Amino acid sequence: MIKVLMICHGNICRSPMAQFVLQDMVNRKGLTRQFEINSAATSREEIGNGVHHGTRRKLAEEGVPCGEHRAVQVTSKDYEYYDYLLIMDESNRRDLMRIIGGDPDKKVCGLLDFTHRPRDIADPWYTGNFDVTYTDVVEGCECFLRWLDKSGKLRDN
Questions:
Q1: Is the CA virtual torsion 124, 42, 136, 65 positive or negative?
Q2: Using an 8 Å Cβ cutoff, are 3 and 26 in contact?
Q3: Is 8 known to be catalytic?
Q4: Is 94 a catalytic residue?
Q5: Residue 37: inside a domain
Q6: pLDDT 10s per residue in the chain (157 long)?
Q7: Could you say which of 13, 14, 95, 109 is catalytic?
C-alpha cells in the first residue's frame, strides 16, 4: 500500500483539495486498494474545522467527491507511518521539519516537485482563487501518479 499525506498550513483548503483530487484519480484508475491518502496541517489554527467552502465548491464544480474531513495537525508519528508527505509550499516544509525533526528517509516533497515546473501552490485562503489552486493540485497529482508508475511502485490491477 502507498500511504500519502498531503500537508498545508491549516488543512482546510489546499491539502484536503489535494487529498480528494488524488483519491478521485486513484479511484478512477482502479487503484483504490493500492493507496491510503489523507491530509494534515502544520499549524493548530484550524484543528477540528471542516473543509473550506471554497474548496468544497471547486471540488463540486469539477465532480470530485469531498468527504467529511476535519483538520488535524501532522505529528512525528505521521512521518513514520506515511511513505510520502507532500507539502504545498516551502513554508509548510519549514514548519513540518520543526514538527518531525528532519527528513532522513527523503519522504517530504513538494506536490509540484513532480512536475516540469516545481513551485509553491498558492494558498486560496489568501488569494481567494480556488481555480488556480485546483489547476496546480491536479497537475501535481497527475505528475505524482506518473512518477509512481514510472518508478514501478504501482501494481497492475
A1: negative
A2: no
A3: yes
A4: no
A5: yes
A6: 999 999 999 999 999 999 999 999 999 999 999 999 999 999 999 999 999 999 999 999 999 999 889 999 999 999 999 999 999 999 999 999 999 999 999 999 999 999 999 999 999 999 999 999 999 999 999 999 999 999 999 876 5
A7: 14
Tell me, what CATH number does 36's domain have? 3.40.50.2300
Instruction: Report how far residue 156's alpha carbon sits from residue 38's, in angstroms, rounded to the nearest whole number.
Output: 23
H or E stretch at 4: strand 2-8
Domain assignment present for residue 157? The answer is: no
d(CA 44, CA 72): 8
Residue 155 lies in a domain: no
Helix (H) or strand (E) holding 85: strand 84-87
Q: Tell me how far apart the alpha carbons of residues 69 and 75 are, in angstroms, rounded to a whole number.
A: 17
| Sign (positive or negative) of CA dihedral 14, 78, 32, 112 | positive
What's the structural domain count of the chain? 1
Cα–Cα distance for residue pair 36/38, rounded to 1 Å = 7
Full residue range of the structural domain in which residue 65 is found: 2-150
Question: Given 78, 89, 95, 123, which residue is catalytic?
Answer: 123
Among all chains, which residue has been given the C-alpha cell 508527505? 85
Confirm whether 14 is a catalytic residue: yes
Amino acid residing at 70: R
